[in-house]
Amino acid sequence: MEQQNSTARGPGFLRIAGLGAATALACTALLGAGSSALAAYFARRIITPDRIKTEEDELLAVVRGPEGLEGIFRATPETTVDGVYSFHFNGGAGHARIGAITSYSPLEGTVQRRIEAVYSGDIHHVRWGRWGGATYSDPGGLGLEFQEVTLESDIGAFPAWLVPAPVEPDGGRRSRHAAGAAQQVWAVMVHGRGATRLEGLRALPVAQELGLTSLLISYRNDGEAPIADAGRYGLGSTEWREAEAAIAYALENGATDVVLFGWSMGGAVSLQAADLSRNRHAIRALVLDAPVIDWVDVLAFQARLNKIPAGVGRYGQLMLTHPLGRRLTGLSAPVDLKSMDWVSRAVELRTPALIMHSLDDDFVPPGPAERLADRNPGMVDFVPFHKARHTKEWNVDRERWEVTVRDWLSSQLEERATPGAAH
C-alpha cells in the first residue's frame, strides 16, 4: 500500500477529497441529519479501490547531470528523503525509478535527484506524477527470469509472477539455504491496498539470496484480478483466499513450505491466511512490512486524519460490520473487524512473524504492531524504522531491510529444518 505526501489523497489510503477543516466543522453542525450520510461515505471509501490515482507531485524540469538524467522536483516530506523511489506519470502509463538526491534548495522549495531508469513513457515532457515505493517494472527489471502464471480461487483465474529460485551449478533449483537440502521453501508476496504486484518486487533480491522461489500475486479488485463483491475490498477477510490459492499452487509444484510476505493490507491478508487457510501448517513464517494489525485502530486514525467526527467514524465502522450496513456500503457480507484484531488475538498467532514498521507511518500507525510484539514476544519480532512513512522501509534503507529479513528468515528456516523440530 503506497501513499503520497500527506496533503494529497494517496493511492494507498484515505485522504478523502473535499474533507478539510471547514467541511469537518460543517459535519459537526450537521451531525444529527448528516452523520449517517457521511459515515456511509467514509465506510465506502475504506472498501472502494481508487481506480484513478491522483498525480500531485510536481516535476519542474529534467536536466542532464554528470551521471545521466536528473529531475528537479517540488520539495515535499517524501521527495526530500534519501533512498530510491518510483515516479508514476501520465495516468500510470509512465514509470521511472528515482535515485539519490544531488542537490536540495529549501529556500526555493526544490530537490534534484538522479533518474536511474525510465521503464515507460517520456519523462521529459511531464509536469505531474505520483511518488511511490515500487521501484521496478517487473522481475526482469532486477535481471531475474520470470513467467506469468494463472492461479485459481473462488473468484476465478487471477495472475501472478513466478520467479524461480536461483539455478544451482548442478542445474537444480533446490533451496541454496543451508537448511534447504531436503526442502523447497517458496515465498508468496501479497501487496497492499491500492497497490499491485509491483510492491513485492523489492523483496526479490533477498528471496533470491535465500534460494526461495517467489510468487507475487494479484487479488480481487486490485485492477489485475477479477472484480468481486461489487468491487469492494474485504480488508483481508476475502482476499486471503487468493493467498491460499497461491500456497496450494506452491505445494502442488514442489514446495514443502511457504513464507508469506505482506505489505500494509497485504499484512492483514497474510495474517488471515495463516489463521484460516487449509494449508496453514505449511506457512513457515510471516514477513510483514507496515502491516494492518488492527483495522479499528487504523480506521479511527484515518477518521482523525480526515477531520471526521469520532462518532461518525465509529458509525462508519458499524456499517462495515453489521448486516444492515450492506445496502449502504455495497458489501455482499459484513466485514468481521474483530477477527482481524491481532492485538486482542495476540496469543492465537502461532506463526513466527517479523514486523518492520516506520515509527512515523502516518497512514497505518505502528502502535498495534508494537503491542502485538509485546503480547506475543515468542512469535513476533518488531523492528522499527524511521523516516519511511508508509511501506517505504526498503526504499529508505535497503541494506538494513534486507539484512533484517535475511538474518531473521535464515534463523527461521534453520530452526524448522532442525531434526526433530515441530513442523
UniProtKB/TrEMBL annotation:
Report the residue ranges that make up the AB hydrolase-1 domain in this protein: 188-356
Recorded hits in Pfam families, A to Z, give: Abhydrolase_6 (PF12697)
Q: Does the keyword DNA-binding apply?
A: no
From the Swiss-Prot or TrEMBL record, what is one GO molecular function term? Answer: hydrolase activity
Keywords for the protein's UniProt record, in alphabetical order: Hydrolase
> InterPro entries, alphabetically?
AB_hydrolase_1, AB_hydrolase_fold
Entry keyword Metal-binding = no
Superkingdom in the source lineage: Bacteria
**Name the UniProt record assigns to this protein:** Alpha/beta fold hydrolase
- What species does this protein belong to? Arthrobacter nanjingensis
